[in-house]
Design brief:
The protein is built from 13 helices and ten strands. By secondary structure, the chain is α+β, with helices and mostly antiparallel strands. β3 and β4 form a beta hairpin. The longest helix is centred in the N-terminal third of the chain and has 21 residues.
Amino acid sequence: MPAKSETQEYVREGLPYDILKAVYKDSRASLRELGRSLNISYHNIASTLEELGSRYKLEYTLEIDEKALGFAEGRLITIKFEKSPSIDFLKERLAKDIFVQDAYLGEGDFNLLLYVVATTAKEIKSEIWKLRTDFAEYKPIFKSATLDENAIGFLPLKSELINESPMLSNSEKKVLMLLNDNSRIRLKDICIKCRIKNPMHVVYIIRKLKEKGIIRKFTALTQNPDKRVFAASSVSLIPTKEHGKFFLNFARAIISEDTKEITNDYCFIADTIGAYDGFYICTFTDGEQMAKRGPDLLQLLWAAENPQIEKTVLTYRITGKWPFHLEEYTNYKALVEKNASKT
């Protein structure tokens, strides 16, 4: 019996968006679980997810709490070079460095964006010093800030870093690394790769990692989003007593164009402590949208706090993953609803 026209239209128009939301929320959900939650057949779910994975280069991964893993708070570092190093040099220096989780080349107020995580604050200071000396001939200006826990979105971690955790057993490290590389990996494949005979032991390890808060979410990122202009901005300001009101106005502006897009404009929003007070990583349809909803929007919304904004267009991923996620504006809406009564 042929599918109803409404169902056919939903499979064509609505299902891809709903599947992407679902795998961002829980990438380990099985195809049958997704089918039941969306009231769509297993085969439609399977074929649609396969097509989406190929088109958007989905990376099934984990949102991990670095502090729960025993690491110091991560540092966002922006670097402005007086003389540009070659991409080959940057790859050689950064790609194999386990403390540099993500590195993006840019054109604008800074040329390089790094996310650095290490076991201790002392180790991070040592890593930053090494970076400064290695880049010295290019006359870099470094600016660094510590990430606050108040963030929407996340910056991916390299699996190699997990092996440095002082909090985990060898079995826990192996399972966590496999899930970080592919959070949809089958249970039996984890058993084979970790040489664990009893699948229930893997289930126990995963449950334990979640209970410890190490695994925040089984999730997905897109490395080929539907928007093609990638940008990052840092904001330094002079806070006033109405700072909370301005932030709420920012959240309202973010959700003002609530459309069924594959990636949010603002994929990463974080309060920071250090050289700047906030950091944003975005992806826009084109330059016009970036002008409308990027740094100019930030300048307008924070005008009363004299914002100093440094911005760049991200042009190349040197190491790590792009942090572009697949969730609609639920987080921003929740933020507005939660704080509406306070302002």
